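Quick note —
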Amino acid sequence: MNAETPVKVEAEDLYYGVHKGIRLANARMLVRLGSVDPTDEKALAESLKALEQHLEMSLSHLVHENHQIHTALESRCPGATHDAGDDHEHHEESFVELRRLAAEVAGAGADRPKRLRRLYQRFALFVADDLAHMHEEETKLMPLIEANFTPEEIVGIRERIVADIEPDMMVRFMRAMLAAATETERREMVGGMQAGMPTEVFSGMMTAVSGAPWVPGDWAGLGRALAAA
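Predicted structure written out below.
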């Protein structure tokens, strides 16, 4: 497996930023499932709800890749997304199984610890598969996109993806992406949103992301909020 990403620095990477966010969200969810007390009804219910929201975000990302990135790439490089498409089908099967296991945990009695352990282990396998899958997309598909599309066309793909995301789902993505970003990346992302949104929309988005009204420029406060998310 190639550990390097052969993408030119001037290219807009359709994968890396959102994948950093998903990697962090995967890791946080894995730790949460592994540490929640099966006898704590409130904490367990909150963790299972968080898992459902995580799976919804993962599925949303997968669907946008299928509809926008894979469709575009197949139009110029037929067959290029075959392996990634197979991975996506396996992911969807994993989502179904994880939801079934979560429901079994929620309805379990004395065997709840065993069922929770099974859910945790199955989610760990999904994370392992997802990490490998995202790496392949970044190191194989993104260079193909760069080689076969103009920078303007790549921006257009990204804009179509963003336009297709519902506001509440966008908040989830932005929270994960900003939490996983470096300070420089975070400032660039927030600056881009501020420049591209009406003031009231930007303010509402950042309030939803940070959990409280955000004062532009309060990077330390944003960092604390994202660390606690």
